[in-house]
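yo, Protein P21-like is done. seq:
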Amino acid sequence: HFRYFLSLLSLYSHTNAATFQVHNNCPFTVWAAASPGGGRQLDSNQDWTFDVNPGTAGARIWARTNCNFDGSGRGSCETGDCGGLLQCQGYGAPPNTLAEYALNQFNNMDFFDISLVDGFNVPMDFSPTSGGCRGIRCGVDIKGQCPNELRAPGGCNNPCTVFKTDEFCCNSGNCGPTPLSRFFKDRCPDAYSYPKDDPTSTFTCPGGTNYKVVFCP
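structure:
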């Protein structure tokens, strides 16, 4: 009986591993990053596909720009740098547009979002490739329209990154939108623009869904 149970378990976990395809549609090279997943240089129109275990939470995918790495995979990026490593082991430095997700959570649903809480570096589409649920997109070049006080090399910072105040960062857990967060929300209504932006910015799909992240959709 126990062996049968184990085979059922392996069947369950196998069928529920989610496949993520990352596609670079930008006219320039990006160094895709994923936690979990590592990192990969993607020239224009290149893809990177990897599987993520069911139950994974606190995960994210992002693009790094203007990177230089040596043969051992050490170097740096202008945006999204993760500790100077090609193969990311943690999160990236702002500003970077984030695809965030948690698999097989409450009621076996996947939760996913695009977040600008760490700022913006490249436009992004984050969509299911199965599962019959809707995708999300932040397709505007926010970098080109960035307010002066939020400008950063290669991107546009979120006000929390720049000012580090409770008003923008919600450290006490109680804050609302600001004129600067609305700058992001007006351009990308699907995306998180400040930490408490949950009701309009979190999306769900059934567990076992596969996804595609496109840079510069």
